[in-house]
């Protein structure tokens, strides 16, 4: 991007990055993901859909650079979120001590700044420190290039067309449950903590500092946080690799951090290289019939993508009417989908585009959204025809379908169907073993991304 300090040579960055990560070898990275979309930059990584002692023990013992625990906490109440994160932190700390591992916990949240922040990181920090594991600082980094999310001079931007729009001026900032006003991440921390942490108390790491390549100096800065929060700039993967190198050096020196981050830093800190996008042969299930697409997200981008998809020849559609009794509507939609799949068609079911007016505050709105998602999930849970492919659009929708509809306990991230759009390979315990389950975030892609994807899968 014009006007930004230039990156050091790519080969030099890679050498610095790999050498630094080696110093952190053996440290287990546990990524707590508040919806299933956080795996949108990684591949050949396990996702566990519960945080039982057994699941966390298996994640800790696995030979992977990192493991994801799907919390789906963006669909939780504040009380449910607090309870779940306390349980997870207790079990992770206990498993680490039992196995003799070092560990880091990354709270992976939305790159457009929605979710239970600072609640989740506050609970994690408190619980870890009660277990005797001091937290030396909090690193906040919502960079996610595949979705067009960049942080420059501590201001977080969302790419809209060819324009970078400050996050606080987007539709995401007007979210009914997790809304905010600030675009400067220091101000955002002050806003979300209701002034408990003042913007002036938040440290910052600029692009100029990152691109200096002085990872030892940055590591010293991180080591000196003394528990404070730091917001980090980022506009490309090289920035994340240099930041990760500095984090690794600080961790190797005995420091421990808590993270609130989008998917970009997760990939870099895990040492994960890029791989080509998945093709038709990797995404279609042999013997499956037709394809099923379920759309729950209501953001403007999703609606535009849906409208583009419905113009594609051979696609059949049905609205899931949220004003009708949800159980009745679910049964009718499932019967319709089974008939379409038997014919080899691509069946699209989408929830009413107009949001229901729910009496009460954000918590009541969230409860209704969860009830709608559960009804849509029942379509998959009761489905008697195996689809050739399955795509879910939206965070709550895709989580419910994966866990409750498909019955996935552990999946492997196969890769991405398109930039920022992850694919789970369903395990043997699931309803459709081997199915490629495409998790399409509501806020990723351009207007024709979904249409182009489906055209290539038919």
UniProtKB/TrEMBL annotation:
GO molecular function list: ATP binding; kinase activity
Keyword Methyltransferase in annotation: no
InterPro entries on file: 4-carb_acid_sugar_kinase_N, 4-carb_acid_sugar_kinase_N_sf, NBD_C, NBD_C_sf
Four-carbon acid sugar kinase nucleotide binding domain segment(s): 292-450
Keywords, in A-Z order: ATP-binding, Carbohydrate metabolism, Kinase, Nucleotide-binding, Transferase
Pfam family, one: NBD_C
Coiled coil spans: none
Keyword Nucleotide-binding attached: yes
Span of domain Four-carbon acid sugar kinase N-terminal: 29-269
Family from the record: Belongs to the four-carbon acid sugar kinase family.
Protein name, UniProt field: Hydroxyacid dehydrogenase
Native source organism of the sequence: Luoshenia tenuis
């Amino acid at each position: 991007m014009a006007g930004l300090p230039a990156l050091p040579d790519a080969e030099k960055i890679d050498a610095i990055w790999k050498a630094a990560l080696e110093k952190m070898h053996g440290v287990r990275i546990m990524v707590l993901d508040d919806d299933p979309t956080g795996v949108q930059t990684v591949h050949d990584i396990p996702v566990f859909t519960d945080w039982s002692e057994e699941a966390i023990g298996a994640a800790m013992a696995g030979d992977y650079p990192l493991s994801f625990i799907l919390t789906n906490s963006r669909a939780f109440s504040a009380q449910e979120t607090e309870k779940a994160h306390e349980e997870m932190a207790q079990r992770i700390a206990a498993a680490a001590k039992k196995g003799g591992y070092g560990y880091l916990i990354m709270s992976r949240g939305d790159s457009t700044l929605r979710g239970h922040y600072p609640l989740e990181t506050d609970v994690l920090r408190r619980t870890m420190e009660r277990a005797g594991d001091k937290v030396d600082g909090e690193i906040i980094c919502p960079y996610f290039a595949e979705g067009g999310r960049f942080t420059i001079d501590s201001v977080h931007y969302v790419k809209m067309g060819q324009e970078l729009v400050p996050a606080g001026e987007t539709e995401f900032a007007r979210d009914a449950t997790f809304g905010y006003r600030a675009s400067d991440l220091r101000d955002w921390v002050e806003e979300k903590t209701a002034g408990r942490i003042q913007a002036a108390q938040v440290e910052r790491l600029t692009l100029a500092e990152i691109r200096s390549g002085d990872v030892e100096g940055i590591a010293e800065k991180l080591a000196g946080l003394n528990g404070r929060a730091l917001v980090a700039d980022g506009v490309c993967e090289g920035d994340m690799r240099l930041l990760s190198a500095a984090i690794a050096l600080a961790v190797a020196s005995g420091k421990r951090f808590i993270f609130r981050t989008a998917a970009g830093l997760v990939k870099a800190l895990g040492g994960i290289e890029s791989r080509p996008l998945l093709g038709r042969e990797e995404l279609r299930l042999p013997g499956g019939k037709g394809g099923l697409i379920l759309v729950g997200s209501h953001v403007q981008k999703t609606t535009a993508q849906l409208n583009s998809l419905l113009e594609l020849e051979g696609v059949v559609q049905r609205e899931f009417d949220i004003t009708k009794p949800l159980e009745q509507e679910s049964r009718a939609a499932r019967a319709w989908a089974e008939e379409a799949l038997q014919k080899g068609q691509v069946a699209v079911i989408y929830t009413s585009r107009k949001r229901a007016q729910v009496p009460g505050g954000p918590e009541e709105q969230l409860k209704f959204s969860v009830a709608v998602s559960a009804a849509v999930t029942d379509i998959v849970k009761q489905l008697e025809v195996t689809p050739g492919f399955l795509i879910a659009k939206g965070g709550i929708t895709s989580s419910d379908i994966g866990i409750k509809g498909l019955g996935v306990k552990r999946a492997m991230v196969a890769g991405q169907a398109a930039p920022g759009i992850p694919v789970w390979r369903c395990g043997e315990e699931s309803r459709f073993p081997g199915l490629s389950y495409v998790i399409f975030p509501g806020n990723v892609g351009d207007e024709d991304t979904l249409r182009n994807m489906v055209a290539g899968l038919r």
